[in-house]
């Protein structure tokens, strides 16, 4: 039954959404699709093909279906690499965020030239190239003239005389963790410090007047306020640490057992460049993409909930 409009009633007009912002986004979206979409498409297609050295010289690839995935992930070596990579990623991300938060709180507590010195030191560590950083750490942990072995021997640990840190997987990943955390802490510390500067000092002063101690202020006031920044940097660290390649590769060149120290990035490199199994390397690459999504999903979901709230 049709309704007749009431005389004198205001007419509600639905506002049109502006089209200009969407039109302005088209060039950026096109660049992203071209720069990111095509490589992902190539990886997906190649992961379902037999693509080896012959295909590099022009022979057409043959369709393999899920054979690359079945062949790679039925191997115990690939499973060990996945477990090793996930553990290494979570440990490094946790240590990096914890130390970054400690430095951010330290920079908020100190003033004057002390804060400037800390910030400059963090920026210098962050700006150091990967090759230079790994080279310095290789010198520090060198079995013949390294400072670390020399210092440990002087402290009474004679077993470290001529100790080769890259010979065993445990000590190898200890050195790798030091390098990666050392290079990643500055970004986390400066990002969290920027978040801490937004905490209202009047709110903290009111909490002190009400009798809250430093621990209560930290966990019940400061941490909830910087939780969005903390979640973002933790998410980024998980993504970056899962894709570590250069640091591990450069340390392996110092004489480490490659089969026992490979992470996912190095395993993909070994499959493609050393074994000429580009189809298998592409399959592992797609798995890494899916694994990154799985590990990142809880943090992305929590960020979206906070944004809606």
TrEMBL record:
<feature type="domain" description="ABC transmembrane type-1">
    <location>
        <begin position="82"/>
        <end position="299"/>
    </location>
</feature>
<dbReference type="InterPro" id="IPR000515">
    <property type="entry name" value="MetI-like"/>
</dbReference>
<dbReference type="InterPro" id="IPR050809">
    <property type="entry name" value="UgpAE/MalFG_permease"/>
</dbReference>
<dbReference type="GO" id="GO:0005886">
    <property type="term" value="C:plasma membrane"/>
</dbReference>
<keyword id="KW-0472">Membrane</keyword>
<dbReference type="InterPro" id="IPR035906">
    <property type="entry name" value="MetI-like_sf"/>
</dbReference>
<keyword id="KW-1133">Transmembrane helix</keyword>
<feature type="transmembrane region" description="Helical">
    <location>
        <begin position="172"/>
        <end position="196"/>
    </location>
</feature>
<feature type="transmembrane region" description="Helical">
    <location>
        <begin position="278"/>
        <end position="300"/>
    </location>
</feature>
<protein>
    <submittedName>
        <fullName>Sugar ABC transporter permease</fullName>
    </submittedName>
</protein>
<feature type="transmembrane region" description="Helical">
    <location>
        <begin position="116"/>
        <end position="141"/>
    </location>
</feature>
<comment type="similarity">
    <text>Belongs to the binding-protein-dependent transport system permease family.</text>
</comment>
<feature type="transmembrane region" description="Helical">
    <location>
        <begin position="22"/>
        <end position="41"/>
    </location>
</feature>
<keyword id="KW-1003">Cell membrane</keyword>
<feature type="transmembrane region" description="Helical">
    <location>
        <begin position="78"/>
        <end position="104"/>
    </location>
</feature>
<dbReference type="Pfam" id="PF00528">
    <property type="entry name" value="BPD_transp_1"/>
</dbReference>
<feature type="transmembrane region" description="Helical">
    <location>
        <begin position="217"/>
        <end position="240"/>
    </location>
</feature>
<dbReference type="GO" id="GO:0055085">
    <property type="term" value="P:transmembrane transport"/>
</dbReference>
<keyword id="KW-0813">Transport</keyword>
<keyword id="KW-0812">Transmembrane</keyword>
């Amino acid at each position: 039954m049709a309704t007749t409009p009431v005389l004198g009633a205001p007419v509600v007009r639905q506002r049109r959404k502006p089209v200009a912002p969407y039109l302005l986004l088209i060039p950026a979206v096109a660049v992203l699709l071209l720069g990111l979409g095509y490589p992902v498409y190539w990886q997906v297609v190649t992961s379902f093909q037999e693509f080896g050295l012959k295909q590099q010289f022009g022979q057409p690839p043959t369709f393999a279906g899920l054979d690359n995935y079945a062949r790679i992930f039925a191997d115990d070596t690939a499973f060990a690499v996945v477990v090793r990579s996930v553990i290494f990623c979570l440990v490094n991300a946790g240590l990096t965020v914890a130390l970054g938060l400690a430095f951010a709180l330290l920079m908020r507590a100190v003033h004057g030239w002390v804060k400037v010195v800390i910030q400059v030191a963090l920026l210098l560590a962050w700006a150091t190239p990967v090759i230079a950083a790994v080279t310095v750490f290789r010198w520090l942990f060198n079995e013949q003239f390294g400072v670390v072995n020399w210092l440990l021997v002087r402290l009474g640990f004679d077993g470290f005389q001529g100790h080769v840190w890259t010979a065993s997987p445990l000590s190898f990943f200890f050195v790798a963790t030091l390098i990666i955390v050392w290079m990643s802490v500055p970004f986390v510390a400066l990002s969290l410090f920027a978040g801490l500067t937004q905490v209202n000092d009047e709110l903290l002063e009111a909490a002190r007047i009400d009798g809250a101690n430093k621990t209560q202020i930290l966990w019940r006031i400061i941490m909830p306020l910087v939780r969005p920044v903390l979640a973002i940097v933790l998410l980024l660290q998980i993504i970056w640490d899962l894709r570590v390649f250069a640091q591990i590769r450069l340390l392996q060149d110092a004489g480490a057992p490659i089969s026992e120290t490979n992470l996912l990035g190095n395993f993909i490199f070994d499959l493609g460049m050393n074994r000429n199994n580009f189809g298998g390397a592409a399959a592992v690459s797609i798995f890494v993409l899916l694994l990154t999504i799985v590990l990142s999903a809880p943090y992305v979901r929590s960020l979206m909930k906070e944004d809606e709230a």
